[in-house]
Amino acid sequence: MENNSAAAFIQLKNLTRIYHQGERQQLVLDGICGEIQRGEAVALLGRSGCGKSTLLNLIGGIDRPDAGDVVINGSCINRMDEHGRTLFRRRHIGFIYQFFNLIPTLTVVENLLLPLELNGWDLAEGRRRSMALLEEVGLAQREASYPDQLSGGEQQRVAVARALVHRPALVLADEPTGNLDAESGQQVLELLDRLVRDEQCTLIMVTHSQVVAARTDRTFSLKQGRLVSDGEMVW
Ligand SMILES: Nc1ncnc2c1ncn2[C@@H]1O[C@H](COP(=O)(O)OP(=O)(O)OP(=O)(O)O)[C@@H](O)[C@H]1O
Ligand SMILES: [Mg+2]
């Protein structure tokens, strides 16, 4: 993604999200404002149910705010139509979730090739890139395995490789180690940390762990629908 603006890479402008269920309304995000610079790795903390995944899904264009804007590199993604958002996401964003979300009917290497095919990569080049990343995450020899033949930690390392394979400018991770034991979690984090820096991605990572958060450049907490930084309401 070319840098086409002097403004922050990611701008969150007064984001509001209200869930409606029958009569019940829940204000989950109450005017979130903030900026993230290109190349930053930031952690998003907060109690269960406070809206972390909701916010990540707005930034990734999976969901749309009821009010406010998400601007990424000058593009306001919530004003794009569904197709435009899908294309933007496919090209510029990599997602990593708590529960891996690999496609069970595809092998490890096919899981990596899929986002490249969707982006129109040349097949041979895509294969080279996929194998190089599998090498990085220590799983090149498992390229022909199916996800259910891998351990949780191994699946998550594939998910990290898949999130990065198409060279996204932005990586969004929603509790990427939440489902792993401490040692596998540590491995996945070290990998993620190294790869996002090598590949010069911007990273937003949801975590419940202060230790994990401490490895990032900056930490935010979500409290009562607002973003809080370093214990103080800054926005
Ligand atoms: N699609 C939905 N419809 C209605 N309510 C929802 C929906 N998605 C989330 N919520 C509610 O919004 C609130 C925030 O949910 P969210 O998943 O963003 O929390 P979270 O901070 O990611 O929690 P956790 O740490 O447990 O993953 C919760 O109270 C949840 O029940
Ligand atoms: Mg969540």
- Structural class of the secondary elements? alpha/beta
Broad CATH class of the domain at 39-53 and 81-229: Alpha Beta
Q: What would you report as the Rg, rounded to the nearest angstrom?
A: 18 Å
Task: Give me the count of strands.
Answer: 10
Trace the largest sheet across and list its strands.
Answer: 6-7-8-3-9-10
The CATH architecture of the domain at 39-53 and 81-229 can be given as 3-Layer(aba) Sandwich
Strand and helix layout:
Layout: E1 10-21, E2 24-36, E3 41-45, H1 52-59, E4 67-72, E5 75-76, H2 82-92, E6 93-96, H3 108-118, H4 123-136, H5 152-164, E7 170-174, H6 182-198, E8 202-206, H7 210-214, E9 218-223, E10 226-229
Parallel strand pairs: 3-8, 3-9, 6-7, 7-8
Antiparallel strand pairs: 1-2, 1-4, 4-5, 9-10
Helix pairs in contact: 3-4, 3-5, 4-5, 5-6
Describe the structure.
It is a single chain. The protein has seven helices and ten strands. With 235 residues, it is α/β, with parallel strands linked by helices. It has a domain of 164 residues: 3-Layer(aba) Sandwich (Rossmann fold). The longest helix has 17 residues.
Key phrases:
alpha/beta, Rossmann fold, six-stranded mixed sheet, 235 residues, single chain, binds adenosine-5'-triphosphate, binds magnesium ion, 26% strand, 7 helices, four-stranded antiparallel sheet
